[in-house]
Amino acid sequence: MTPASLKIGISGVRGAASTALTPDIAASFAAAFGAYIGPRRIVIGADPRPSGAWLVPAVTSGLLSVGCTPVDLGMTPTPSLQHRLRATGAAGGIGVTGSHHPMDWNALKFFGSDGTILRPHRFAELLDLYHQRAYPRAAGADIARAETDPDAVARHLDAVCALVDAGRISRRAFHVAVDACNGAGSWAAPELLQRLGCRVTAVHADAGRPFPRDPEPRAEHLGALCAAVKAAGADVGFALDADADRLALVDENGRAPGEETTLALAVRHMLRRAPGPVVINLSTSRMVEDLAREAGVPVWRTPVGEAHVVERMHAVGAPVGGEGNGGVIVPAANAARDGFVAMALTLDAMAADPGTLGAICARLPRQVMIKRSIPCRMREAVPFLRQMRRLFEDCAPDLTDGVRVQWPDRWLHLRASQTEPVLRIVAEGRTRESAQALLDRVSEYFRPAAGGGG
């Protein structure tokens, strides 16, 4: 039986370690994935959560039981795992990481041979196989030996450095403060910055210690980094989440402009180098649309989720895309959300501009976004979203992923999270007042429609 508290969706399988995501469940999902992929090499990487100490062996055992060859990358940022998977020609990968969730959570993320999260139809097939529990077990003589691969991070950083003008960045000798949240990027992030000639002040870069803040790199969680930037006189601060696929910025004044700024800066810089279509999700800031319009290129929006964005990027040949949560995707380096790519592109943009990061951010199109996450069970979210469809039916809402409504100067997106029991509400306008007015308009409906949010 699968515990009700286990969250299963396109992003993988996640929940509280030991109570929802147990060793038995991890081994069974790994066996199902191995049976689905076939008896081939599958890479495994993990962030430094304590529960990884028993989840990784459980995943390894599950893969071995169906004849696969597990390749343990050790503590590895998720984008490094994805890059290594493609580079070595492995058949698939499993990331043992709770990403931006608290330390007592963990998750299994499943990747195909192209290094991307399994597409929805493929994950549905995997889930069906898991529930059937009908995977063929390997005979004793056919069980492979597990392997290790210590080079994943180093080779990934090689690709990131090759994406930018490393010499130009090095000549600027930036002073960078980096907050890795004691996560998987704790040594890799300083290593990348040093390769690019930066002086590094490390904040929360000890993977042997607990997470010191909420792992989600949002402005309200970055007080220590903001203080460190000001105290050190750094040019920029970088904040990663626990598996290093998302990045938030802090400018030279110790101000965090918000995680949406990361993608906007990356898009503007990449479009100046290689104009082409841009792909973002439905909850990403309209700053990106404004920048694409200036560059004369189209923008495509997808449902929330890295797999949706990457799939559309491949279809339209987009040189850059991502999600406004700090997830930058540049296929030339890594067809995945990649905090290291985001750091390198930010430094490359700064090296090409005589101004400070604060001045560069000030030249971005002005938008004000407000995000809310409301505790909510799915059975409560469904009637609320149905009511929102009726409320905005005259505005031709986009129903691709929840309910999204757009006007010339503002927009609103409401959806049930695929990874947590919460309702996501995002509003953006030219002013804080216009965004807040949208939130106020829908908030009055939530309690009567959804029983108070659970």
Describe this structure in words.
The chain is α/β, with parallel strands linked by helices and 454 residues long. 39% of the residues lie in helices and 21% in strands. The strands form four sheets. It has a seven-stranded mixed β-sheet, with helices on both faces. Helix 2 links the parallel strand 3 and strand 4 (69-75). Helix 5 (152-163) runs parallel beside helix 7 (188-195) and helix 9 (260-273) packs across helix 12. The radius of gyration is 22 Å and the shape is globular. It starts with 6 loop residues before the first strand and ends with a helix.
Low-confidence stretches: 448-454
CATH superfamily of the largest domain: Alpha-D-Glucose-1,6-Bisphosphate, subunit A, domain 3
What is the annotated CATH architecture of the largest domain? Answer: 3-Layer(aba) Sandwich
Quickly name the level 1 CATH class of the largest domain.
Answer: Alpha Beta
End-to-end distance, in Å?
24 Å
What shape does the CA trace take? Answer: globular
CATH fold node name of the largest domain:
Alpha-D-Glucose-1,6-Bisphosphate, Chain A, domain 3
Structural class category: alpha/beta
Biggest β-sheet: strands ordered side by side in the sheet: 1-2-6-5-3-4-7
> Total number of helical segments?
15
* Averaged pLDDT: 93
- The percent range for helix content is 25-40%
Number of strands: 19
Ordered list of secondary-structure elements with their pairings:
Elements: E1 7-9, E2 12-16, H1 23-37, E3 41-46, H2 52-65, E4 69-75, H3 78-88, E5 92-96, E6 105-111, H4 120-132, E7 147-148, H5 152-163, H6 166-172, E8 175-179, H7 188-195, E9 199-203, H8 223-232, E10 236-240, E11 247-250, H9 260-273, E12 278-281, H10 287-295, E13 299-302, H11 306-316, E14 320-323, E15 327-329, H12 339-351, H13 357-362, E16 368-375, H14 378-391, E17 403-407, E18 410-416, E19 422-429, H15 432-450
Helix pairs in contact: 1-2, 1-4, 3-5, 5-7, 5-12, 6-12, 9-10, 9-12, 14-15
